[in-house]
Each structure stands twice: as structure tokens, then as C-alpha cells.
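Human:
Class, as today's exercise, you are to examine the entry below, and be ready to discuss the fold:
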Amino acid sequence: MFKSLLIANRGEIACWVVRTARKLGIRTVAVYSDADAQALHVREADEAVRIGPAPTRESYLVGEKIIAAALATGAEAVHPGYGFLSENAAFAQAVMDAGIVWVGPNPSSITAMGLKDAAKKLMADAGVPVTPGYMGEEQSAGFLAGEAATIGYPVLIKAVAGGGGKGMRLVEREEDFADALASCKREAAASFGNDHVLIEKYIASPRHIEVQVFGDKHGNVVHLFERDCSLQRRHQKVIEEAPAPGMDAATREALCAAAVRAAKAVDYVGAGTIEFIADGSGALSADKIWFMEMNTRLQVEHPVTEEITGVDLVEWQLRVAAGEPIPLRQDQLSINGWAMEARLYAEDPAKGFLPSIGRLELLQFGEAEGGRVDTGVYQGAEVSPFYDPMIAKVIAWGEDREEAREQLGEMLAGSAVWPVKTNASFLVKALQHPGFAAGTVDTGLIGRDGEAMAQPPAPSAEALRAAANALMPMTDMAGFRLNAARRRSAWFLLDGEKVEIELDGAGDEAPSASVLITEQGQAWQLSAWRHDAAHGAVGGSGAIVAPMPGKVIAVEVAQGDAVTKGQKLLTLEAMKMEHTLTAPFNGVVAELNAAAGAQVQVDALLVRIEEEAE
């Protein structure tokens, strides 16, 4: 086993690798950008090296800087985590050429599976079933539109170098194809430096089921069973679980055997995931499950596999990279219980899931028996606009699916973050959705029912009264009535909105203070209301401001244009995603301060809409 390890990543995965390495007696080296100088992974590692400014293209994506840091610190191995350079074959080869152990698959395996079109052809040759579609070199818009029509709508446009839901568009009508293709290619070029796409038949009730595989340098390959990642929003996973609901023994055996064949076809070494799409319109069966792609790295959802198998996959990665055989044979692996993972993000579901940034003044996670929280932040840390807005992965284990679901719900409901917004209450509602509770979820569930889940909950009357009483302590005669319980109401500001709350009793003067209410995974601020209190923006304001720092990539209107409610005004690229800003009501573009290609700061006024006169 090597004695030192550099982790070429950040956030919760870097922290998990540090802790696993420490168990094995391995010294760890972190790398960090200027934005991450005080990050948790930097604090937890034995040593840390600055690799550049905040933008990823100047820090975490610069392989030369990472290799230089490894050589300067005497690191004998590099673990890439996931994302960033984890599936970059050239970087993997450069690490090896520098005489450093690469904790991952051979560069040839990454290359073979890195492009979706080539990977599907390879899998078909290996006897792994693949979905029908177009995977050729011709990329003209007209030709691709013709292929889509031949395949039949709905279709998926997918970047061949894509991943994580980026560079992917669902197109249901022929007239929408051109715009979707342009957007997909633009996003693919920005995210992966490759705008080539493939066209794939869209399965109407799809389930996303993947198999964890593991290979070593001695020719051994095993699987660690399947995960179900069907609950998704905009093609990004929201809640994952293992094993998959409704998976019978025969289908599991066929699916996992196909995954092992896929890994062996590319001489795979280390942790990898074979992703399949299943027809979820009925019972699962092997003849209705098709290969989608292979991720040649660890997955974000690896903890659910660890929880049901008792395996630390990062430890396996380190041992296999050091030349050891896989620690367990296939017949020594089995499923124990059920596990679920939810991705807790710094985002505001009520505002279209826009990322929320800022200082984590309050950060607490709910607890449950069998619970686990993987995080890369701490109370007082900053959520940066430069990276993925994940706060934590919240994981629950139970004897069966229902117990795991209940435990995860308790953990999320007991979490509280302030003033950064999170999707915790959205996740709680998703867990409570009848379809998810029954295990009949498909990837379209949130698209169909997510609007209701995204609506923010209101604090309970009991929680409001308790918080109000804490702000306005009861005096002996406050609210006194002869032969009746004392009752009194007072006005407060709840997140800036004036509300009346009935009190058990209150003093004559309200102190100028505030308290936080935390409930259902949500946090609210309650403060005493005064007549001169500022109420913020006037209702009905047509000011469209930048929700975060970013780059304007498209402007759809001009000054003086008439617009309708919901009409697209412009597209902002921020935090590696495209965000569409729309008109809040019918009106006229009275002011336009945005141009394609411009960089804008948070809260910058981009467009102002004047409401139509009555």
C-alpha cells in the first residue's frame, strides 16, 4: 500500500477519501482554489496545496497543476473523486507517466467508455442490450432532425461526452428539435469541450437502474448489486436507493451479469457503474432493460451500495490501485437491508431551484438510527457560486424499504440551514409522494408532480406561537381577561411578510430582535414588526435581476418589445447550468441591460418590465 495520497477534488467526496485513507494509515494531500481556502477538505487533510483562482478551468480542471502538487508533496498516488478530471483519460495517463499511482481505471477503459456512441457500439458487440438510436459522425442539424423523425418522437438528444444530466434534452415534438439541439450542443461544448450528440429513443415510463461493478489488476470483476436512481429532476438524480424496488432474483441475476460482461469488455479496473434504462410501465424484466452508459469512476450515490453491502468502496479503490486483489469474491457479497440517499442542495425550489449562495450561519442535520451524512461544509462555511451547490448527502439504512424511507424523511425534516435556502422540504415531500412510497417511481415523476413538491411549507401555528412568545415575553397582566385564559395577538415579520400571531401573552414593548423557526427541513426568520419596518420591493415589480453571478448566453427580447407572462427573456449560465429568466406578467420591456456574452453579478438589474396599462 502506498503511504501518501493526493485527492484531486473537493467537497464531500474529498472529505470521505481523506477519512478512508486515514483508516489505512495513508497521509493525505488536498488541493484547493482560492474559493476553497477554508473548505472542510482542506482542514481535514494532512497537507493542502493551492492550485489557482476559483474558476474550475483555472484550478480543479488544470491537470498540470495537480500533478505538480503531487510531485511537490511526495504524494505516491492520486484519487480523482468524481466529476472534474475523474474521467479524463489524458489526465490519468499524465499521472501515470509522472510515476504516480492512478486510483482509477486504465486510460484505455476511460476512452472506450467515455463517448456514449462508441460505448454503445462496444456494448452491443459484447452482448449487452442497448437502446435504439443514432450514434454516427454526421452532426448537421438537418441530418440529425431527419434521424430523430425516423426514430420517432419523443427522443433524447445526448452529448456523447456528457454526464450528470448536462448536455441532454428531451424533445417531444418535431418543431422543438432545432432549438433543443442548439441548446444541447452549446451546453455540451461549454461543459465538455465536445458538442457532438447522439439521438436516442425516449422510453415513455423510464426507470434508471445502475449496477456497481469492481475490477482488479488480476482479471477479477464482481458486481455489488443494483441501485435505483429514477427520481430525477431535469435528468439529475434527486433520491437514490439500493436495491431497486420490484427487482426479482432472475432479473437481478441477468442485469448484474450483463454489467460484469460490460466491465470485462474494457478490462476494467477499480470502481465503475453500468447504467441501464428500464421500461417502468410494468414489472421489471431482463428483456426490457437496456444499456445507457458507463461511468468510469465512483458515483455520488456510492454510499447506498456501501450501506447494503458493508463495503467501503473507496478503501477497495485504494487497495486495488495498490495492486491488491478485490477483497471479496462474488459469493461473499450479499444484500443486507435497504438504503436511501437524498442530495441536499443549496437551492430554492420555490424559485425554480435556483442555487442559493452565502454563509451557512446555521447548519444542522437531522438524526436517525442507521443514518449517515456525507458533507463537505460546516456551520460558518460559504456556499460558493463557482461549484456544485451540494451541501450534503443524507443517507438512511433500514431493515426494509419502508424503514429506510421513514428514517430518511426524519433526517431531512430535522435538518435546518440558514440563511441559505435548501431543497430539504422538497425532498421530504418527494419521499411522501404516493408513487415513490409504493416504489413505482419513474424518471418523469417530478416533471409531472414536482410543482406541488416545490411549494414552500408554512410553519405550524405551534411553532409560530412559540417563536413569537420568545420574542415578546409575557408579563403578569399581559392579555388578562377575567375568568378566561390570557390571549393576545401581535404583528410580526415572517421572512419579510407581515403576519398576525396569537400569543399566550406578551409584554407592552417588542424587542428589536429576531428568532429562527426550524421545522420540516425549512427555516424561517421571525422578527418584531414596527410601523416603520421596510418591506422590500413593491409587489408586482417587473425588475428581473441576476439570481447569481453568471454569463448571459442568450437574449430573446429587445427594448420596447411587448412580452407575455412566462415568456423567455434571456438565458443565464451559472454554476455549470443554464437558467431561463421569464417575464413575471404581460407588459413591455422598458429597460434592457443584458447582452449575450456579458458577465453579470448577483442582483444586477438585467431587464425591467412595465405592466400593461388597464
